[in-house]
Amino acid sequence: xxxxxxxxxxxxxxxxxxxxxxxxxxxxxxxxxxxxxxxxxxxxxxxxxxxxxxxxxxxxxxxxxxxxxxxxxxxxxxxxxxxxxxxxxxxxxxxxxxxxxxxxxxxxxxxxxxxxxxxxxxxxxxxxxxxxxxxxxxxxxxxxxxxxxxxxxxxxxxxxxxxxxxxxxxxxxxxxxxxxxxxxxxxxxxxxxxxxxxxxxxxxxxxxxxxxxxxxxxxxxxxxxxxxxxxxxxxxxxxxxxxxxxxxxxxxxxxxxxxxxxxxxxxxxxxxxxxxxxxxxxxxxxxxxxxxxxxxxxxxxxxxxxxxxxxxxxxxxxxxxxxxxxxxxxxxxxxxxxxxxxxxxxxxxxxxxxxxxxxxxxxxxxxxxxxxxxxxxxxxxxxxxxxxxxxxxxxxxxxxxxxxxxxxxxxxxxxx
Length: 416
Ligand SMILES: CC(=O)SCCNC(=O)CCNC(=O)[C@H](O)C(C)(C)COP(=O)(O)OP(=O)(O)OC[C@H]1O[C@@H](n2cnc3c(N)ncnc32)[C@H](O)[C@@H]1OP(=O)(O)O
What we know:
Nonspecific Lipid-transfer Protein, Chain A, alpha+beta, acyltransferase, aminoglycoside N-acetyltransferase activity, Acetyltransferase_Eis, Acyl_CoA_acyltransferase, transferase
């Protein structure tokens, strides 16, 4: 018998088999309790979850869902977010992923989504489907004792004003979503956090038995308005009779730079903590420069993170902001043929227009290189030097860099 690929939503046996297949594919223990499966049925939208079934066994999984992605300038676009991609070791390299992803991308384009997004487990998988790396991620480890902060100084700095208070999970669910929605437009690469995100971050919904309650701290400015939040966990290590704890940041975001600085200083002022670890930070995070001794912060990991795939190039290019005025004709190659063509971009700080054109191209690039350029992850000049973008007219890459310049690198604070 062949393998049958079908949507799993609405069928309890299929969706339970799908979760077992998913864990198999991610080399996690495939056993679920009935309670865990029921929780997933109640809270996770499987309307766009596909499974490949070999008799009753689910041998490949794939899911997509609606997401909002912030782009430079502060608007957001409709994204088809892809997750839970696995093929069982018994059925790999037979085209199962290719079948599921090509039909999902075609449906997403048909539906009117602007881009598709995912976090790639391995670099070589998704380029063939027209994706390119669009943000980077950095992990830090800070040696608090070497950081040079004055241990007696109050936090926040009284000269800047404001206050920091601990919150419990219920308070985070109340204050967090509004605060995050004020932060998100200023962070190209950030995505929306639906209610389930907050429920999981605060333990209201526990999908994994190993979940432990974190600490949440809120920064308010001098007027009492929430401007930033940090969530972290601490271990309880002692070495040679001395406290030697590691605080691990789960999330730290702020609307104002003053709040961001105050939250880092707060974390680094917690007595007993000698080390702060933070994953999934922006490549141009305020660390390490906000420390008196920046060498106290070491990069422990650095990699590509969000991958993006154009689905509607005019919608994508008109949604973002441009700091300069100019025209550019982009010829885009697309390995799946979904967006291939030439596009005339007319951009200015007041807004942009983008239409298909028959004019000769200034630049030729693939959808993957466009993804890398779009949020400000890499410059056109760098992509040209890498051979991933061709300048059809001299000076066109420099012109693109004036238009596509962003003051900060894009950052995806979350994993999905
Ligand atoms: C968004 C996310 O969920 S990321 C998570 C991705 N999942 C994982 O990493 C879990 C472990 N890996 C897997 O389950 C599988 O290897 C998958 C899902 C990545 C790919 O499954 P496959 O059975 O290889 O899919 P399929 O047969 O359709 O092949 C896709 C193509 O990608 C290639 N490919 C797949 N995985 C890799 C890889 N890790 N490195 C290089 N090439 C790869 C295949 O060779 C194939 O190329 P071809 O079309 O030129 O022959």
